[in-house]
From TrEMBL:
<dbReference type="GO" id="GO:0003700">
    <property type="term" value="F:DNA-binding transcription factor activity"/>
</dbReference>
<dbReference type="InterPro" id="IPR005471">
    <property type="entry name" value="Tscrpt_reg_IclR_N"/>
</dbReference>
<keyword id="KW-0805">Transcription regulation</keyword>
<dbReference type="InterPro" id="IPR014757">
    <property type="entry name" value="Tscrpt_reg_IclR_C"/>
</dbReference>
<dbReference type="InterPro" id="IPR050707">
    <property type="entry name" value="HTH_MetabolicPath_Reg"/>
</dbReference>
<dbReference type="Pfam" id="PF09339">
    <property type="entry name" value="HTH_IclR"/>
</dbReference>
<protein>
    <submittedName>
        <fullName>Helix-turn-helix domain-containing protein</fullName>
    </submittedName>
</protein>
<dbReference type="GO" id="GO:0045892">
    <property type="term" value="P:negative regulation of DNA-templated transcription"/>
</dbReference>
<dbReference type="InterPro" id="IPR036390">
    <property type="entry name" value="WH_DNA-bd_sf"/>
</dbReference>
<feature type="domain" description="IclR-ED">
    <location>
        <begin position="76"/>
        <end position="261"/>
    </location>
</feature>
<dbReference type="InterPro" id="IPR036388">
    <property type="entry name" value="WH-like_DNA-bd_sf"/>
</dbReference>
<dbReference type="Pfam" id="PF01614">
    <property type="entry name" value="IclR_C"/>
</dbReference>
<keyword id="KW-0804">Transcription</keyword>
<dbReference type="GO" id="GO:0003677">
    <property type="term" value="F:DNA binding"/>
</dbReference>
<keyword id="KW-0238">DNA-binding</keyword>
<dbReference type="InterPro" id="IPR029016">
    <property type="entry name" value="GAF-like_dom_sf"/>
</dbReference>
Length: 271
């Protein structure tokens, strides 16, 4: 049984079921991902029991189930600076456009903002096809491993990029710079299973009238059909995001305004 060491002695009213769930949370936080089989092995329990634990963690946001039946650390485990309501104004501005992209492409569209080296999924509109990428709202993943994150990293200079990733090796940094150079030239980023092998995506940055990057839209597609729909989805994203960026420019949307928080009271949500 692979478990983190306890902080104190075992309590008198020890509850094994609760302890297994809490240890599962700790393991998921440390490893970043797991599966029913792996968790059963780590906890020395049978797979059906591990499956029930992961279902409950997913229910409370501690885990997110992917299309490949693995589980990632969920939004409730995210240690970030993103607070409730963060990005409300930007979400409100782009929501109809995200819906339009999803309906035209039949694929899942995400709104993403970058904070440091991580990308935060603020809003998702699921596609209409039976096999599709699920809602990722609240998920946090490395910026350099998804299309939206790559699109937002293109603004950084070599010095800024090195400062953001001080522990990245020279070869890995050169590879990242080449990828970002390609994204700048073509105007969009492509992710073919970089973070989740069964999920590919196309990402385009959102900018205001002075060129500030506000975030990015990402169109997520099952890798199994990505080749067949790639060109059509790129055309949709480029056209729709051009229209959206024009809207953002006309609104003179600033970075601070787009990412402002909201106050939630008993009378409703107020920006």
């Amino acid at each position: 049984m692979l478990t983190p060491p306890p902080f104190t002695s075992q309590p008198k009213d020890y509850l094994a079921t609760v302890d297994l769930a809490l240890v599962s949370v700790l393991l998921l936080r440390e490893k970043g991902s797991t599966s029913v089989t792996q968790l059963a092995k780590d906890l020395d329990i049978n797979p059906p029991r591990a499956h029930r634990i992961l279902q409950m963690l997913t229910y409370r946001g501690f885990a997110t189930r992917t299309e490949s039946r693995t589980y990632l650390a969920g939004p409730s485990l995210s240690s970030t600076g993103i607070k409730p309501g963060y990005g409300f104004a930007l979400t409100r501005l782009v929501q109809d456009h995200i819906t339009a992209i999803s309906r035209e492409s039949h694929e899942t569209c995400h709104l993403i903002v970058r904070s440091g080296t991580n990308c935060h999924f603020l809003h998702s509109e699921e596609g209409s096809l039976p096999v599709r990428v699920g809602n990722r709202r609240g998920q946090v993943i490395p910026a350099h491993l998804n299309s939206g994150g790559l699109a937002t990293l293109t603004d950084l200079s070599t010095h800024e990029l090195s400062s953001l990733y001080p522990d990245m090796g020279e070869k890995e940094m050169l590879d990242l710079r080449r990828v970002l150079h390609r994204v700048r030239k073509q105007g969009f980023a492509v992710n073919q299973g970089m973070y989740e092998k069964d999920v590919s995506a196309i990402g385009i940055a959102l900018r205001n009238d002075v060129g500030d990057t506000l975030g990015a839209l990402s169109l997520a597609i099952p890798t199994s059909r990505f080749r067949q729909v790639r060109d059509r989805c790129i055309e949709i994203m480029v056209r729709r995001c051009k229209e959206l960026n024009q809207v953002l420019e006309k609104n003179h949307t600033t970075h601070s305004e787009s990412l402002k928080r909201v106050k939630i009271s008993t009378t409703g949500i107020h920006p």
